[in-house]
């Protein structure tokens, strides 16, 4: 059980970091919409519209690290396998 929790912690760490990097490595908080500048064709005035887009931020990365820390902490409550000794 100890080894399983440690492996789960490593998978969570790697997956969280990979997702964060793959989606743009946003160093702010998580965003669910992004501002996009648009130009009105008729008047030529610039405006801002918002598009729905998920950008995980450092809070997402922190949650992944926190979850991994919980798994690692829980693994300390389990003992490792004792080596079996053979008497000759």
Q: What number of domains?
A: 1
Radius of gyration: 23 Å
User: What composes the largest sheet?
Assistant: 2 strands, antiparallel
Strand order of the largest sheet: 1-2
Approximate helicity band = 40-55%
Sketch the topology as an H/E string, one letter per element. HEEH
Shape: rod-shaped
The mean pLDDT is 90
Structure description:
The chain is an alpha+beta fold and 88 residues long. It has one domain (2-75). 44% of the residues lie in helices and 22% in strands. The protein is built from 2 helices and 2 strands, in the order αββα. The protein has helices spanning 2-22, 58-75; strands at 31-39, 46-55. Strands 1-2 form a two-stranded antiparallel ribbon. Helix 1 (2-22) runs antiparallel to helix 2 (58-75). The longest helix has 21 residues, at 2-22. It is rod-shaped. The relative contact order is 0.24.
Please give a handful of descriptors for the protein shown.
single chain, two-stranded antiparallel sheet, 2 helices, alpha+beta, 88 residues
Short recap of the structure:
By secondary structure, this protein is α+β, with helices and mostly antiparallel strands. It has helices spanning 2-22, 58-75; strands at residues 31-39, 46-55. It has a two-stranded antiparallel sheet with strand order 1-2.
């Amino acid at each position: 059980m100890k080894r399983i929790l440690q492996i789960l912690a490593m998978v969570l760490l790697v997956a969280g970091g990979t997702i964060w990097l793959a989606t743009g490595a946003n160093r702010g908080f998580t965003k669910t919409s992004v501002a996009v500048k648009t130009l009105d064709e008729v008047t030529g005035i610039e405006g801002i519209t918002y598009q729905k887009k998920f950008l995980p931020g450092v809070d997402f990365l922190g949650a992944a690290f926190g979850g991994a820390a919980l798994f690692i902490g829980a693994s300390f409550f389990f003992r490792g396998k004792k080596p079996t000794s053979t008497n000759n």
